[in-house]
Amino acid sequence: MRQPATKNTPKVSIVIVNFNGKDVLEKCLKSLDKIDYSNFQIVLVDNDSQDGSLQKAKRLFPQITFLKNKTNLGFSAGNNVGIRHALSNDADFILLLNNDTIVETDFLTKLVETVQKEPRTGIVCPLIYGPDMKKVWFSRGKIDWLRMKTAHETKTISQKPYNSDFISGCAMLIPRKVLDKVGLLCEKYFLYWEDADFCQKVQSAGFKLTVCPKSIIYHLEQSENVNENKVYWLVLSALIFFDRNCPWQFRPWIWLYIKLRKLNNFLNRKLNRGNFTESVRRAFKDFKNA
User: Fold this and answer.
1) Distance, C-alpha 63 to centroid of its chain
2) Is the full-model pTM beyond 0.90?
3) Which of 17, 20, 65, 196 could form a disulfide with 166 if both were Cys (CB 3.0 to 4.6 A apart)?
């Protein structure tokens, strides 16, 4: 049951970016309609969807604030549209939430309580289960600087809040003071790696990245299917991330590692082996020309 808001209840703006989310968006919004937190608003930023998902959401959830972009701006820029709106409307916290999630009723209450108990928290996220609602999809994130990868841990770490190398952009609660200090998401990223990049900025500013395991959501994984477009953005965004964030001691190795990956891609194309080799080639080319 939702408790009445008091003057001391922080205002949370839940920012959701939607792009052709007809199969998942309604489930997400219905679950948010049942949460027990008392002082929140939902800001839905639509990236020019063509599947009717925006129109349906407007009909079913008229209380939501809708912002429609004229084109698909991507994840970072789309979220920034919502963040700016939220900050201009006096939000104390911004929650970035994927449109393919379902939330437990107390998930937001638990997240806010975690930040209130530890003021140096820069981002807090829930424990994230996969679509079967039984297996953990994200319990903590790690950055592998040597292999240019991020990894999700999928085991329960603790019942108490704990630190993480990065927080999944699937669900991020960010205090206003953090955004005031470090700024918004980097719009060099169209898809992927923007969460890890933002986490680096937040940590560099002296804040902690925290997982609250008593806050639970479920990720329906709308974007899990691998295709040419996804591979392209994963490779390009990874190159941008490591160019921006790689510690100096790893940079010689990263330079060599990228050369080896380009050589491997060249051989795969010449020998007609492997999948998505042309997408990888385009990503390397576009990064070089950026």
Assistant:
1) 24
2) yes
3) 196
